[in-house]
Write a structure and sequence with these properties.
nine-stranded antiparallel sheet, binds glycine, binds adenosine monophosphate
């Protein structure tokens, strides 16, 4: 099978790595890819937000299966254009991608599905939004309705902070994404992510993970795209996972089908768990980054079969073969991230890191320059390892981190702390 993966981060490197292990994969192209991906697959320059261009590329390169990594092309309908052209696609249609693209849409679906989530109210003007915040008190959560690259959520500790966030959002800080604002009850508990494959009808849980969103150790400092992750998430016991499937995921999928917009692809549910009760924080319509890296490390080649089965409406006949293993990934980022950072510094020592079914350095933002890997993004490398225990996976990952010679890079040394404490 000839496969195209859209995207160019650590998530897509791990998807490519898993796909390449599957004998079914004849040819793999990743667009745009990055310098690490280029070591295992062909990379192509392509405007992945332009459905017609992607269709054209697929036709020119005899592509048979397209895996869409990031949310932006899904939200802009690239999967629809590909399906219209008769291609097999892993990723939801634009109408179903609204589960990530609009927070108020997700709330509507949860209401109709009876799925437990935070109480909320939606606003298109600042004054009533502020009156609502004053009436509710803090802590309270203020969210821009649309896609804001993970930055449109403010967990306000005071009413003043919430009011400032409301002003920023209606003031255009997040562009059109902030034209509507959702204000939510603050939920307490422990957060975890559940990844579920869907083919429109059948839902197959693929695994759980926990992310580390803050840049600093001990979960301090500003939010990032994620500084590390591990799988499985201990808080997601079988009982909690089953409850999440029964109370949240399956009713959501049934409601999406009822609306005539069945969901196909991976549904990433961000959950808040308290006293064994999961509640939905948010949906994403793609794999998490870096959560995907730990899932792929654990799933290996079967990931491709499962994604293909989801695309072909065959999940009812599939099972996921889990080992009793653990995976952990440490993100190396450019100093300054998530604020301003430099690009172009040289990364050495990667050749000293093992590459096997328990060790892999996925590239998130690198380029090749004069025979060297150089940093080309905020999050640059995802140092990923697998082990029989989380501790072993963690020790293996940090042993690789210590071999990498990149003085301009930073990482958290405490990835996995919550599960290891
Ligand atoms: P999101 O971008 O929607 O994932 O939100 C970013 C982070 O904000 C989440 O991972 C949570 O830690 C936090 N968050 C979002 N909504 C709530 C909520 N209703 N209660 C508590 N924390 C929340
Ligand atoms: N790591 C969080 C995300 O991918 O949204």
């Amino acid at each position: 099978m000839n496969i195209l993966i859209l995207g160019g981060g650590g998530r897509e490197h791990s998807l490519a790595w898993a796909a390449m292990q599957n004998p079914k994969c004849d040819k793999l192209i990743v667009a745009p890819g990055n310098a690490g991906i280029a070591e295992i697959a062909e990379c192509a320059q392509l405007d992945i937000g332009n459905g017609a261009a992607v269709v054209n590329f697929c036709e020119g390169n005899a592509i048979e299966f397209v895996i869409v990594g990031p949310e932006a092309p899904l939200a802009s309908g690239v999967a629809d254009r590909l399906r219209d052209a008769g291609l097999l696609v892993f990723g939801p249609a634009q109408a179903a991608a609204r589960l990530e693209a609009s927070k108020s849409f997700t709330k509507e679906v949860c209401d109709a599905a009876g799925a437990p989530t935070a109480a909320y109210a939606r606003f298109t003007e600042a004054a009533p939004a502020k009156a609502h915040v004053r009436a509710q008190g803090a802590p309270i959560v203020v969210k821009a309705d649309g896609l804001a690259a993970g930055k449109g959520v403010i967990v306000a500790q005071t009413v003043a902070e919430a009011e400032a966030a409301i002003d920023d959002m209606f003031g255009g800080e997040f562009g059109a994404a902030g034209a509507e604002v959702v204000i939510e009850e603050f939920m307490e508990g422990e957060e975890a992510s559940l990844f579920v494959l869907c083919d429109g009808e059948t839902a197959l849980p693929l695994g759980t993970a926990q992310d580390h969103k803050r840049v600093g150790e001990g979960d301090t400092g500003p939010n990032t795209g994620g500084m590390g992750a591990y799988s499985p998430a201990p808080v997601m016991t079988d009982a909690v996972t089953e409850r999440a499937m029964t109370e949240i995921i399956r009713p959501t999928l049934a409601e999406m089908a009822r609306r005539g917009t069945p969901y196909q692809g991976v549904l990433y549910a961000g959950l808040m768990i308290r006293d064994g009760q999961p509640r939905l924080v948010e949906y994403n319509v793609r794999f998490g980054d870096p959560e995907c890296q730990v899932l792929m490390m654990r799933l290996g080649a079967q990931a491709l079969d499962l994604m293909q089965a989801a695309a072909e409406d065959r999940l009812a006949e599939c099972t996921v073969n889990w080992a009793e293993d653990h995976a952990l990934t440490v993100v190396l980022a450019a100093a300054g991230y998530p604020g301003a950072y430099e690009k172009g510094s040289v990364i050495k020592g990667l050749e000293d890191c093992p590459e096997d079914s328990c060790h892999m350095v996925f590239h998130a933002g690198t380029a090749e320059k004069a025979g060297h890997f150089v940093a080309a993004g905020g999050r640059v490398l995802n140092v990923t390892a697998r082990g029989d225990t989380l501790r072993q996976a963690r020790d293996r990952a940090y042993a690789m981190v210590d071999r990498i010679d990149w003085p301009e890079g930073i990482c958290r040394r405490d990835i996995g702390w919550r599960a290891l404490k």
